[in-house]
Amino acid sequence: MPDLLLELFSEEIPARMQAKAADDLRRMVTDKLVAEGLVYEGAKAFATPRRLALTVHGIPARQPDLKTERRGPKIGAPDAAVQGFLKATGLTSLEEAKIQRDPKGDFYIALIEKPGRDAIDVLAEILPVIIRTFPWPKSMRWGARSGKSGSLNWVRPLHAITATFGLETEEPDVVKFSVDGIEAGQTTYGHRFLAPSAISVRRFEDYEAKLLNAKVVLDPDRRKDAILIDAKQLAFAQGFELVEDQNLLDEVAGLVEWPVVLMGSFEPEFLTTPAEVIRATIRNNQKCFVVRDPKTGKLANKFILIANIEATDGGKTIIGGNERVIRARLSDAKFFYETDLKTKLEDRLPKFEQIVFHEKLGTQAARIKRIERLAAEIAPLVDADGGKATRAAHLAKADLLTEVVGEFPEVQGLMGKYYALAQGEDASIAAACEEHYKPQGPADRVPTDPVSVAVALADKIDTLVGFWAIDEKPTGSKDPYALRRAAFGVIRLIAENALRLSLMKVAASALAGLSVKPADAQKLPSDLLAFFADRLKVQLREQGARHDLVDAVFALGGQDDLLMIVRRVEALGKFLDSDDGKNLLAGTKRASNILSIEEKKDKRTFDGAPDAALYSLNEEKALAKAIGEVKAEANSAVAKEDFAAAMSAMAKLRSPVDAFFDKVRVNDDDAKVRENRLKLLNEIRSATRAVADFSKIQD
User: Fold this and answer.
1) Alpha-carbon gap, residue 243 to 67, rounded angstroms
2) Over the range 114-134, which residues count as b (16 or more CB within 10 Å of their CB) and which as e?
3) C-alpha closest to that of 444 among 481, 485, 504
4) Whole-model pTM above 0.90?
5) pLDDT at 35 over 90
6) 3-state DSSP call for residue 329?
7) Distance of CA 351 to the CA centre of its chain
8) How does pLDDT run across 15-33, given as a tens digit for each residue?
C-alpha cells in the first residue's frame, strides 16, 4: 500500500515546541485518515529547527465504498415530502426506492451508495486544513507573498511544503494543494549554511538519506545520541568527565540540524563561585555543558558547546565567541555571589514584611514565623534539636532575596546553604536551608538530617493547612499551589525516615498559628487527612502496589499515623498475595454479602455475641473457637504494631471459615439458629477488622 511523506519547511522553530509539534502533526493527520476510512499501518513524525516531517506507511490507495439506507416518507405522503426525499437522496423516481414495512405504516427507503475516493484526493483535502489549524502555542503572520497579504498563522514563516504519496516500487505522486500561495511539491532544502541548495525527494527513505547527505540529521533522538557520545568522548580525551543534563540535551538537539561538539574554557578564578552557579550561568546563557575532574569531582574551567556548523577554522571563532559571552556572564555571577556574602541572611528578613505570600494568608514574614513555631513543635517528634530547627526555619527563605537567586531561581535553597555556611551557621542549619524544599518530586532525594526533616515538614504542612483554610484546594487537574506535591513530600518524609507523628495534631497546631480561620475549623485536619490518603493511594499505584488496601486500612478510622498505615498496607498486601489471604478474603466477602442481604431483609443488624448453646454442628463450634483465638492474637499483635504477626493470626481463620461454608446452612429453618449463625458471620467480619476492612478490598 502507498506511503505518505509530508514536510513543512520553515524558519527556526523554537526548541521547546518541536517535540509536541511533531506529535501533534502525527496525531492530526492519522486521526483524519482514520475518520475518512483510510486505516494506516504505521506513522512517525520528526522535527528539526527548520522542519516538521511525517511519514505514514500502509495507507489504502482508495477509500472503501459506503452503502447507507435513508428512510423516507410514508407511502401516500404529500407530493412535497416525496419530492424532497428524491432530491435529498439523488433518486430520479420512487421506483428506485425500496419499501419497508413498519407497524406505523409502510415507508420508502433509499439505498445510497457512496463510492470511495482516491486516497491522494482525500489527502489533498485534509492536509491544508491541518496546516491552517495547527495548534502552535504561539504563531505569527509575516509579509506579503505575490502581492497579497499572508493569511497563514504559523510559528515562523513557512517556506515550502513537501507532500508525496505512492508505492515503494513506483514514482510517487505529488499531493496537489496549496496553503497561502505555497504549492505542495517534492522539493526541500538541506542545512542552511553547509548545503542550502534545493533537493528533490520522492519518499521517506530517499528523503531522509538525501537530508543526511545535505548535513541534516532528521531524527531528534539520533541528534541527541550524537551530541552525548561526542561530548563524552571530547571530555574524556581532555581528561575530564561530562556533567550530563537531559533537559539541556533535549534543548540543544532542537537548536541544531548538524551537531558539532566543541570545547571552550574560562579563567580558573571563576571557580571560586559555587559550582551550581557556574553551571546555571553557562547553561542558561549559552546552552553549554560543563565538565568536571573525575578525580576530585569538582568542576573544571572548561565547557562544551554544540555548534550547528563545521567551521573552516576548526571552530576557533565559534569557541572564542562563546568564551567571551561566558566570561562576561561568569563575571556577573561572581560579582552577585560576592555581593551577597556581604549581607547576613537574617539582615535580609525585614524585607519580607513588604512581600505578600498570599492575600488571604499574609506576608512572607508572617509565614516564616509560622514555620519557625511549627518546626519547633515537630522537632522533638523527629529527634531534632529544637533550637537548631527554629534557627533553620528562621533563615531558610532568606536567600530568596539574594542577587544570585534573583538571577537563577533554580538555585534557591542551595544558595541559602552556601551563605549560611559562609556566616558560620551550624552544618545542620545550613543543610536545612537547602533541604527544606525537598523532596520536590518522585525522583528527588528525601532529607535525613532531623533538622532538615523538621523544617521540611513544617514548610509543607503550613502550606497545605493554609490553603485548605482559605478553601484553595486542588480541583481536577488544577493545582496552582503545588499542594499535591507538598502532600507527596510529607508522605515520603514520614515513610522513608520511619517517623511516628500524628498528622491530625500537627495540622491542628498549624491551623492554630493562622490568622485566618475557616468556617469549619474542626473538620479541616480530618479533611486534610483524607487528602493524604488519596495521595498515598496514588503513590502506591505508581509503585505498582495495591492502592485499594489504603481504603481498607483507613476505613478502620482514627488513624493518622502515616508510617503505621504504610506498614499495615504492606503487611496486608503480602498476606493477600498468599493462598491463605486470598481464600480468607473470599470467605469474608461471602460472609459480608450474606449479612448484607439478610440485614436488608430483616431490617436489622446481627450484632452481639452468638449463643454457644445453639451451636449444633462441629463446624460452628470450630469457627467460634478460632474467631475468639484469632481476634485476641491479632489485636495483641496490632497493639505491638507487629502487622506480619497479625496477618499470620488471620490466616488461621481460613480453614474453619471454609469448613463452615462447606457444611453449614446459614438460613436454617429454626429462626433462633439462623439468627445465631448470622451473628457468627458478623464475628468473622469483626475479627478481620482488627487488621483491615476487608469489604473495601477489591477481588
Assistant:
1) 63
2) eebeebbebbbebbbebbeeb
3) 485
4) no
5) yes
6) helix
7) 36
8) 999 999 999 999 999 999 9
CA distance 678 to 553: 25
Cβ-based neighbours of 613, under 8 Å, separated by 6 or more: none
CA distance 252 to 230: 14
Would strands 51-57 and 42-48 be described as parallel, antiparallel, or unpaired?
Answer: antiparallel
Cis bond upstream, residue 439 (ω within 30) = yes
Helices 15-35 & 246-253 angle (0-180, nearest 10): 70
- Residue 343 buriedness (CB in 10 A; 0-12 / 13-18 / 19+): middle
Q: Exposed, middle or buried: residue 269 (CB in 10 Å: 0-12, 13-18, 19+)?
A: exposed
Alpha-helix runs per DSSP H in 513-666:
524-542, 548-554, 562-577, 579-602, 618-639, 643-651, 654-663
Residue 329 sits at φ, ψ, to 5 deg, of: -70, -40
Residue 661: closest CA among 679, 673, 677:
677
State which H helix or E strand residue 307 sits in.
Answer: strand 299-307
Q: What pairs with residue 304 in β-bridges?
A: 263, 289
The length of the chain in residues reads: 699
- What torsion, rounded to 10 degrees, do the Cα atoms 665, 698, 529, 452 define? 130
Question: Is 501 in contact with 379 (CB distance < 8 Å)?
Answer: no
The confidence score (pLDDT) of residue 400 equals: 97
* Rg of the Cα atoms in the chain: 36
**Secondary structure class of 242 (helix, strand, coil):** strand
Q: How many CB atoms lie within 10 A of CB 421?
A: 15
Distance (Å) of CA 17 to CA 52, 189, 288, 424: 11, 21, 20, 46
Q: Which three cell numbers stand for residue 394?
A: 528562621
422/403 Cα distance (integer angstroms): 16
Distance, in Å, from the CA atom of 33 to the CA atom of 694, rounded to the nearest integer, reads: 49
Q: Note whether 382 and 501 are within 8 A (CB).
A: yes
CB neighbour list of residue 399: distance below 8 Å, 6 or more residues apart: 345, 405, 412, 413, 415, 416, 419, 433
Would you tell me how many other CB atoms lie within 10 Å of the CB of residue 312?
8
Q: Which residues contact 472 (CB under 8 A, 6 or more apart)?
A: 480, 481
Q: Bridge partners of 325?
A: none
| Averaged pLDDT score across all residues of the chain | 92
Q: How many Å apart are CA 38 and CA 389, to the nearest integer?
A: 66
pLDDT in tens, 544-560: 777 788 888 888 776 67
End-to-end CA, the chain: 47
Q: Which residue has the cell 521517506?
A: 204
